[in-house]
Amino acid sequence: MRKYSQKHPVLDLDLSSSISRKGLDGVNDSLMVLLKLRAEDHNITLISNDATVAFGELIERLAKQEGNVVILIDEYDRLLIDTFDMPELQNSIREFFRDFYYQIKSKRKYIHVVYITGISQYTKTGVFSAANNIKDLSTHKNFCTVFGYTHEEIVANFEYYIKETATHFKMTNDSLLTKIKTYYDGYSFCGGTSTVYNPTSIHCFFAEKEFDNYWVETGQQEFIEEYISRNKLKVEDFEHYDITLRQLKMPGEVKKSIAPALYLYQAGYLTPRKDPKKKNAFYLTYPNNEVRTSMIELTENNFFSEKRFKKEREKYIAKLCECLDKQDYITMLSVFNSIFLKIIYDDYSQSSSNELTLECFYRNSIYLLMINASLDIHPEEHNSAGRVDLVLDHANKIILFVLKISSSGTEGNIKKKFREANEQLDEYAKTYDNPLSISIVINAKRRQIALASIGDDVYKGISSTRQRTPDTYERISDLESFLHSIPKSSGKGK
User: Fold this and answer.
1) Which residues are 448's β-sheet partners?
2) What span, in angstroms and rounded, lies between the C-alpha atoms of 165 and 197?
3) Given 94, 116, 136, which residue is the final one in a domain?
4) Partner of 391 for a Cys bridge, out of 161, 314, 369, 381, CB 3.0 to 4.6 A?
5) Which domain holds residue 344?
6) How many structural domains compose the chain?
7) Residue 85 placed within a domain
8) Is the model's pTM score more than 0.90?
9) Tens of pLDDT, residues 312-358
10) Count of alpha carbons within 13 Å of 91, Cβ hemisphere only?
11) How are strands ordered across the β-sheet holding 241-243?
12) Using one digit for the tens of pLDDT, what is the confidence trace for 291-311?
C-alpha cells in the first residue's frame, strides 16, 4: 500500500479484535472508537456518533482534505463468525454492517480503491448486498497466488533468513525449505495446483527459528475449540472431504446450519484441492502440518481425559515409536490399549450401542497418537477395494490396520468380527506393495483389544489381574488355521 500512500490517504480498519460482541450498541460504540482514532490521524473531528454514518462522513471529509481515499478493511466478517451460534445477534449485526458498507457505494466518488479481506465469501454473508460495486477476487484464477507467498517468492526474498535458519538447524538449505513447505505451504484459493504459504507463519518462523503453530495463535482459538467440542468433530473427518465446485465457490452463509467442513473452510482450517482421480472433482483437507497439528490439539482436548492423557502422552509416543522401530507390534497393541482407557467416558458411554461410532472412537485415538508422534499416518485411505481404516508408512514399510468392534464381547462375536476384518484386509492388501496387515478386534465391554492378527500370526489378549491395566498378548495360532476354525455362519455369534 506504500505506493498509494504517497498520493492517496489510507483508511485502515482492522475489525479482527476491536469490535465488541455485546449487542449492537457495543458494536457501534467500539467501531466509533476505531473510526475516531483514524479521524484523529488526519486531524478530523467526526460529528455523528452512528458508525454507519460516521464512516461515510470520514471518507468524504478525508477525500476533500487529502485526495481520494484508499480503504483497507481486514477481517470484515469476524463478528459474523464469532456470533454464528447467536442467530438473532448475528442477523442484527448483518443488517448493521449492510448499512455500514453501503457507504462504500454511496461515497464511491471519494474513493480511489477498496481492499477487503475476510475468510467468508462476501456474496453469502449478505452484508454487501447494498454495496454491489465490490468484486470478489478470492477464487479468481488470476489472483490465486496473490494472498500469500509462493515457494518461488520465499526462495527469492528470504535468502538471508533461509541460510541463517538452515545453519541454526544444521540442515542444508534445500532440506530446510522442504520442511518449511510441509509446515506452512498448502493454501489454495482456486482449488488447483497453485498454493501459497501463510505470511504470518513464515515471518514468525524465521524470527523464532522454531517449527510451531503460529497462525492459529493469532486467532480466537477458544471459539473454534468450542465449535469442535459442540459438534464432536474428529481430525480424521477432514483429511479428505469431497466437495463440489459449486460448494467451493459458494460455501454458504456463516450460520449454524453450515456443514462443519464448510465452516472450517470458512475459518481457514481447511483448503481445497483438485482430486486427480476424478474429473472436475475437489476435496477439502488441511493445508499443512501447522493447521493439522493445531486441529489435533483442539480435538484431543475434547476426546481424551485431558489431564491424564496429556500427562502421559509423551510416554505413549516414545513407547509407540520404540515398538515401530523394533517392529515389536505385539507390545504396540498394549500401547493402543493404554490410550483406549483415556477416552472420555461420557462420550464413550453415549456411543456404546453403536459399533460404527465406537469404531470411529478407537480409530481416532490411534490416529491422534500416531500423528502426535509425527508419523506418516492416513485414516480411511481410499483405494479400489474401499477405505482402509489406517495406513501407516514407516521406515519404508506400509502397515494396514483394520479395526472391528465387538459390542457384546462374546467369544463368538469376537471371532466373527475377526473374520470380517481379515476378509477386508485381504482385499485392501492387493492394492499395496507387500504391506504388513494388522487386524484388531476390540471388546467394547472391556475397552481392550481381544484378538489381533499381525501378518500371519494370531494373538489373544491375556487380561491383567490389575483393574484397568492394559492386556498383554500371546500367540495362539497361525492366521490361516485360525480362520479355518471359525465357522462361516451368518449368525450373530452370540
Assistant:
1) 443
2) 17
3) 136
4) 381
5) 304-485
6) 3
7) yes
8) no
9) 788 889 999 999 999 999 999 999 998 887 776 555 444 445 676 77
10) 3
11) 241-243, 282-285, 271-274
12) 888 887 777 666 665 555 566
